[in-house]
Specification:
By secondary structure, the chain is mostly helical. The chain has one domain.
Length: 305
């Protein structure tokens, strides 16, 4: 059946699936509101190790992954990545279980623009006019929130910065996403197990079978969209995958407002509008550059022939 589809069609389908799972993640985590955020984070780490371990075994990639444990530089980088991954997981779980899902979605809308800033400041990358305007609109969005609430949108900024810095760290090491997730979770595992022991199971076996199954499923919920995303990234150009990205935070916003009933106040609407304008500018500019690069590659190939 799927053999009839092109790589682009299959890649798009896989990418949309991954971002929809991430976009509707709040519906999963909100069912675990009875569990303390710290306890839930520890459970997520524990069951992620089991889920990814099983995936690596099935794929026949576990032995090669375990060899990475003997590489000090690799493990040091993965430990740094694990810190920001844990921070991102913890903030997101806290946000969606404490009626802050709207601000969480803003954080992921800000992410592409934060990545531009990280590229400029950390990697000394050059930015073009469209990216400068994108950053300006993002700063304006934050300024609107500060003026309205009298403080920074900490949830949104924490999510965007933690995931952006996580991506920057992972950029420095060539490890597949699944192997990377396993190493990160493995590094966090002693802390998670210690916390679970300290908390006498951290809610497991206390709130009924449904909650226990959701806790166990947290690992698979973390692993499945990542595996789907990796498969999509191998079939699609990054520019096309970047366009699909916006499905995730859009779904998060829909869930926050229409399902959870969180209010979308005028200041938030203005902030989202400013961010969206910035994203449109940056995305369209990237798409235009990618098309120009492809045309140039075709012309060069024809000239060689």
């Amino acid at each position: 059946m799927f053999s009839n589809f092109s790589n682009e069609q299959r890649g798009t389908g896989l990418g949309v699936t991954a971002y929809l799972i991430w976009g509707f993640a709040a519906l999963y985590w909100v069912q675990l509101q009875v569990i303390d955020t710290r306890d839930l984070l520890a459970h997520r780490v524990l069951w992620t190790v089991f889920a990814v371990l099983l995936s690596l075994l099935v794929a026949g990639r576990l032995t090669a992954t375990l060899r990475l444990l003997r590489q000090p530089r690799t493990m040091a980088i993965m430990a740094a990545a694990a810190v920001f991954s844990a921070a991102n997981w913890g903030v997101f779980i806290w946000a969606v279980t404490h009626e802050q899902a709207t601000e969480a979605s803003l954080g992921y809308f800000l992410l592409p623009l934060v990545n531009v800033v990280i590229g400029l400041t950390v990697f000394s990358e050059r930015i073009d006019v469209a990216q400068k305007w994108g950053i300006a609109f993002a700063l304006a969005a934050v300024a609107v929130q500060v003026a309205y609430y009298g403080g920074l949108p900490l949830v949104a900024l924490s999510l965007a910065l933690s995931f952006g810095l996580y991506g920057a760290i992972r950029k420095g090491i060539a490890i597949e996403s699944m192997e990377g997730l396993f190493l990160e979770a493995l590094i966090m595992l002693p802390f998670a197990v210690g916390w679970l022991i300290y908390r006498d199971g951290a809610g497991f076996g206390v709130h009924g079978l449904k909650i226990d199954l959701l806790l166990i499923g947290a690992g698979f919920y973390s692993a499945v969209p990542l595996m789907t995303y990796v498969a999509a990234s191998r079939l699609l150009p990054l520019t096309a995958l970047g366009l699909v990205f916006y499905i995730g935070p859009t779904a998060q916003l829909i869930v926050a407002v229409w399902v959870f009933g969180e209010p979308l106040v005028p200041a938030q609407m203005v902030a989202f509008g400013l961010v969206w304008i910035g994203l449109v500018l940056v995305t369209m500019d990237g798409y235009r550059r990618a098309r120009r690069a492809r045309r140039l590659a075709v012309v060069t190939s024809n000239q060689i022939e």
